[in-house]
Specification:
Layout: H1 2-39, H2 58-62, H3 70-84, H4 94-109, H5 111-132, H6 144-202, H7 204-225
């Protein structure tokens, strides 16, 4: 009887161990899935994940909303980085995703960069309010649908801002190029002038000698032309 009880207990222990092993395996698979999903996914409910997130929107990359605190940013970065760090997952895209995550955290930690991003969100929100002829206290502004539209509108604003920035850089480079060419032309003109002056100075003795020889030759001709008196 005792042996049967012991056998039953051993079977229960064995079953429990097997269940734990299976659960551990499932947990590991689920964790890997979450890591992969965090890195890159085209599924609609994961469309804010790192490699699919809009590059100009650091909030989307970190999956945060505008207005969060510096502490919230640090905590979220820590949480995401632990999940997708290249040392923590075998996903080949992990290094790229982690680099983008670090860049997003850096941008949100920079006061000026974050201010420009917050301004873009504020501009997008105001544009939507004007387009829909709402007031700033409209309840629809709190709806999930508006939040999605707000993100999309912010993309448009960020793209416009980026295009404007690139045009300004291009114009600045063009202006700098013109200024550089102007300076190079002035330097070249001064160089030619110095070379000309140096060449004139180098031939000074030659010119003097030539003039003296000329004067000497002219004097001898005059003597030959003079006739004796008588």
């Amino acid at each position: 009887m005792a042996s049967k009880e012991n056998a039953g207990k051993e079977k229960e222990i064995s079953d429990d161990a097997l269940d734990k092993e299976l659960l551990a395996g499932l947990d590991a698979e689920e964790l890997e899935y979450k890591k992969d999903a965090e890195i890159s996914s085209t599924q609609p409910f994961l469309n804010l994940r790192i490699l699919n997130a809009f590059k100009l929107d650091a909030y989307s990359i970190l999956e945060l909303q505008p207005g969060v605190t510096e502490s919230d940013i640090k905590i979220q970065f820590r949480k995401k980085s632990l999940l997708i760090h290249p040392d923590k997952t075998k996903n080949p895209q992990a290094p790229d995703a982690f680099d983008r995550l670090k860049k997003a955290q850096s941008e949100l930690s920079d006061e000026k960069t974050r201010m420009r991003l917050d301004e873009a969100f504020a501009d997008a929100r105001m544009l939507l309010i004007r387009e829909r002829k709402w007031t700033v206290d409209n309840e629809e502004l709190k709806s999930p649908e508006f939040m999605v539209d707000w993100r999309e509108k912010t993309k448009d604003v960020l793209i416009d801002n980026e295009l404007r920035r690139r045009k300004q850089i291009k114009a600045q480079l063009a202006e700098e190029g013109r200024e550089q060419r102007k300076q190079e032309a002035e330097l070249d003109a001064r160089k030619r002038k110095r070379e000309s002056e140096q060449a004139w100075e180098d031939t000074r003795d030659q010119r003097i000698n030539s003039w003296r020889n000329f004067q000497k030759g002219a004097g001898e001709k005059k003597k030959k032309k003079q006739k004796p008196l008588g």
